[in-house]
């Protein structure tokens, strides 16, 4: 695919994200003004929320995509949730989360984004994440760098601050939607070790600067790309949460690795792996991998299986 085509897709995705963002912003404004008809719908899992706006925005994006590029493939959170069979192929594929941060959307907490990723030959090639509540647009295309609001090159720190030790890091993570005792105990134990002082019983404890959660995987990745958090670790999010953000992190000079405890794994994460460890840009790859290795000392072995859906799912 030519650079010109990539540029065309990037501009298309930016416009699409802004138009979808306008729908999200209008829905928040009308709910706050007491006139919204946004009924909160619960899936079987009471902490995995979906609203009419999630569905309407995905339909809007899908319709525009298929009208413009009828032969392209589409993977979207709500389409997947409805049980539609999807496949990941070499074909040009758009991977979309209409609202990342649905819980924030319901509460009016302003970390809400539409996330539009694009893969070609299975390679993440374009990423656009737009937060219409803060009017922040993050975009990147492979080989072209990552930008905030089209003009500000990421990371914001130029040159990036040195990455020396996890004890100097600000770490982003999330509760996620699996609230089983096993998973929450393991996550809290890991967070405990990220925060506490080392001692003879906890030689790997990091005593890091602190923990942050935005409630949006896509925006956590954009914060890594900005360089305002050093590390983001999450188990349990999905390809639509990360497909765009992974391109934005990579183009900012950051790494996204598989976030499991295998210390030898230094390859870029598979979009579908559901376990992600992102490290911000640094002066050299060695220092990024050092931080990844320190994180992997703390990351628990949590399972994040792909739930079976009618029709099946092949990644
Ligand atoms: C969720 C958010 C959240 C993350 C969950 C995701 P949604 O996406 O990204 O930060 O912890 O794993 O599912 O449901 O708001 O699209
Ligand atoms: Ca979503």
How would you describe this protein?
The protein is an alpha/beta fold. The protein has 2 domains: 151 residues, Fructose-1,6-Bisphosphatase, Chain A, domain 1 (2-Layer Sandwich); 131 residues, 3-Layer(aba) Sandwich (D-Maltodextrin-Binding Protein, domain 2), CATH 3.40.190. The protein is 34% helix and 23% strand. The protein contains 8 helices and 16 strands. The strands form 4 sheets. Strands 3-5-6-7-8-9-10 form a 7-stranded mixed beta sheet, with helices on both faces. Strands 12-11-13-15-14 form a 5-stranded mixed beta sheet, with helices on both faces. It has a two-stranded antiparallel sheet with strand order 1-2. A hairpin with a 4-residue loop joins strand 8 and strand 9. Helix 1 runs antiparallel to helix 2. The longest helix has 30 residues. The C terminus is likely disordered. The structure holds D-MYO-inositol-1-phosphate and calcium ion.
Q: List the secondary-structure elements in sequence, H or E.
A: HEEHEHEEHEEEEEEHEHEHEEHE
Shape: globular
The domain tally reads 2
Structural class: alpha/beta
| Termini gap | 23 Å
CATH fold title of the largest domain: Fructose-1,6-Bisphosphatase, Chain A, domain 1
Considering DSSP H and I runs of 4 or more, what fraction of the residues is helical?
25-40%
- Rg over CA atoms, rounded to whole Å, is 19 Å
How many DSSP E strands?
Answer: 16
**Poorly predicted ranges (pLDDT <50, ≥5 residues)?**
309-315
The CATH first-level class of the largest domain comes to Alpha Beta
Strand content: 15-25%
Small-molecule binders: D-MYO-inositol-1-phosphate, calcium ion
Largest sheet descriptor: 7 strands, mixed
Mean pLDDT: 92
* Number of helices, counting only DSSP H or I runs of 4 residues or more: 8
Q: What is the annotated CATH architecture of the largest domain?
A: 2-Layer Sandwich
CATH superfamily label of the largest domain: Fructose-1,6-Bisphosphatase, subunit A, domain 1
Oligomeric nature of the chains: single chain
